[in-house]
Amino acid sequence: MPKPIVMVVDDEPLIRETILEILREEGFEPIGVSDGAAALVWAERIKPAVVLADVIMPGLNGIDMAIQLREKMPAVRIMLFSGQTAAADLLERARKRGHNFELFPKPIKPDELVAALRNATMEERRVVSR
After folding, report:
1. What are the chain's domains?
2. The whole model's pTM is what?
C-alpha cells in the first residue's frame, strides 16, 4: 500500500523541514511548499490525503487557502496550525461562513500530530476502499 501523501505548507523553512522530517520518520510521504498559492497548484498535481498548513503566512493565508482547496478538492482533509492569536479571528470568520477546520497550536506536539494524521489517513483509506 502506498504511503499517505501529506502536504505541509509553511513559510518558515525550519518549521516546514522539521515537520517533513518527523512525517518521513513516521512513514508518511510528505511534500513541503512555502505558501498558500503554491499549495493550491501542488495539491491538484499530487492529490494529498491531508494538507497541514500554517494559518498566518504572507500572501494567501492558510484559512483562505484551505477554503479554496476544499472547493476544488472536497475530499482532502485539511489541518491547520498556528502560534498566533490572529488565527483565532480568521478561524471564527471562516466558521461563520460555514468552514470548519481542525487547528493545532504551535509548537506542534509531534505525537499528537502523528496520531491525528494517522486517523485522518485511515479515514481516507476507508472511504476510498468502499
Report:
1. 5-125 (3.40.50.2300)
2. 0.88
